[in-house]
Each structure stands twice: as structure tokens, then as C-alpha cells.
């Protein structure tokens, strides 16, 4: 480190600087006070007039109470509307789910009936096939029709006729059963179609009534909103 010189502070010079700064600040404050005095606003002069409006204090109090009651009623009415709308939406959703479940149950019932009909037809076909096999086995041991045409038919010809008549009766009975089953299936299908049509009409009518009820409630709420002062007519008990 090189040599350096220590200079002692000049106290007189420091005091002079401090006094000059204080005098300058005092002068600025005095100038500010003088400016405020010169630019002080003058007195305000107003024309005397009557205040408070044309209504009395009792009337004003009554109007305030009426506004408060109306506000409470509107809040209550909005809350009731929200609850009604929510309940209507829930009921509509429940009706929709019930309709879906009803349709599923109807389709399942129709499917079960069709399967039952198919099973019965298969059983009848199998029974018919077995009957034909039995009759064919019986025909094997009997003589032919041309060989049975003799002057005095014997017991074999009589047995063949009986077998042929029995076979014909079985076929007729089988055909009759099949025809009865087809007619029953046709009647059930017509009845099911008629029932589905009635249920569809009932469901449509129910949905229309529900929609009409919701629309009427909405119109009533609109009418109540457009006539809010009706609650203060004579006879209203709050």
C-alpha cells in the first residue's frame, strides 16, 4: 500500500452547509403556506330549497318495507321455481327410464314367445318325423296296393287299409295341429302388436300431458313475474 494523506474535516464548513440547507427548507415551507393562503377556496353560497321529496317519513318507511317484502318473496319464488324445475326434470328422467325398461321387457317377452314357438314347432316336426318313420316301417311288412286288388281281399289287405287310414289320420291331425299353432302364433302376434300400439299411444299421451303441464307452469311463472305487485293487493296475507 502506497502512502496517503489524512485530511481532517472542517467543522465550520459543515455547519454552514447544514444551516444553508435548513434555511432553504424553511423558505420552501413558508412559500407553500403562503400559496395555500392565497389559493384558499371562498365561501359557498347555495340557494335555499326544500329537501326530502314530496313524501312523508311514514310513507318512505312503508315503501322500504314493501320493497323488502317484495325482495324476500322474489327470492322465495325463485327458489320454488328451481325446486319445481328440478323435480320436473327428475320425473321426466324417471319416466324415460321406465319407458326404456318397459320396451326392453316387451322385447324380451316377445323373444321368449318366439323361442317357445320355435321349440314347439321343432318338437312337432320331430314327432311328425318319428311318426312317418313308424308308418314306413309298418308299410314294409305289408303288401303293395296292386297286389291287394283281388276278388276277395284277405286279412293283409284289410291291415294295409287300416295302416293307411291310420297314417292318413295322423297326418291330418299333424296338419291340424300345425295350422292351429300358426293361427295361435298369428293371434298372439296381432295381440302383441295391438298392445304395443296401445302402450305407445299411452306413453305419447303421458309425455304430451307432462309437456303441457310443464309449459303451463312456465307460463304461470311468467305471468307471476310480469305482475309482481299482485301480492300487495287487499286480502294478501304474506
UniProtKB/TrEMBL annotation:
Compositionally biased intervals (Basic and acidic residues): 174-213
Top-level taxon: Eukaryota
Region (Disordered): 39-58, 174-214
InterPro entries documented for this protein: EPSTI1 (IPR026185)
Coiled coil: 75-125
Keywords in alphabetical order: Coiled coil
PANTHER family cross-referenced by the UniProt entry: EPITHELIAL-STROMAL INTERACTION PROTEIN 1
UniProt name for this protein: ESIP1 protein
Organism this protein belongs to: Chloropsis cyanopogon
Phylogenetic classification of the source organism: Eukaryota, Metazoa, Chordata, Craniata, Vertebrata
Amino acid at each position: 500500500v502506497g502512502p496517503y494523506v489524512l485530511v481532517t474535516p472542517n467543522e465550520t464548513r459543515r455547519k454552514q452547509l447544514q444551516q444553508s440547507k435548513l434555511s432553504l427548507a424553511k423558505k420552501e415551507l413558508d412559500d407553500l403556506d403562503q400559496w395555500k393562503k392565497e389559493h384558499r377556496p371562498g365561501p359557498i353560497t347555495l340557494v335555499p330549497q326544500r329537501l326530502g321529496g314530496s313524501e312523508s317519513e311514514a310513507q318512505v318507511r312503508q315503501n322500504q318495507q314493501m320493497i323488502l317484502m317484495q325482495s324476500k318473496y322474489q327470492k322465495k319464488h325463485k327458489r320454488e321455481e328451481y325446486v319445481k324445475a328440478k323435480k320436473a326434470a327428475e320425473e321426466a328422467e324417471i319416466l324415460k327410464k321406465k319407458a326404456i325398461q318397459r320396451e326392453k321387457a316387451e322385447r324380451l317377452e316377445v323373444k321368449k314367445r318366439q323361442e317357445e314357438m320355435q321349440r314347439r314347432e321343432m318338437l312337432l316336426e320331430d314327432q311328425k318325423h318319428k311318426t312317418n318313420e313308424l308308418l314306413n316301417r309298418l308299410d314294409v311288412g305289408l303288401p303293395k296296393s296292386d297286389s291287394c286288388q283281388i276278388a276277395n281281399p284277405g286279412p293283409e289287405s284289410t291291415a294295409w287299409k287300416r295302416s293307411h287310414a291310420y297314417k292318413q289320420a295322423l297326418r291330418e291331425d299333424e296338419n291340424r295341429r300345425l295350422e292351429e299353432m300358426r293361427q295361435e302364433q298369428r293371434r298372439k302376434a296381432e295381440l302383441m302388436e295391438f298392445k304395443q300400439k296401445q302402450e305407445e299411444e299411452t306413453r305419447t299421451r303421458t309425455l304430451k300431458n307432462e309437456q303441457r303441464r310443464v309449459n303451463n307452469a312456465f307460463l304461470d311463472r311468467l305471468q307471476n313475474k310480469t305482475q309482481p305487485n299482485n301480492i300487495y293487493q287487499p286480502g294478501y296475507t304474506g
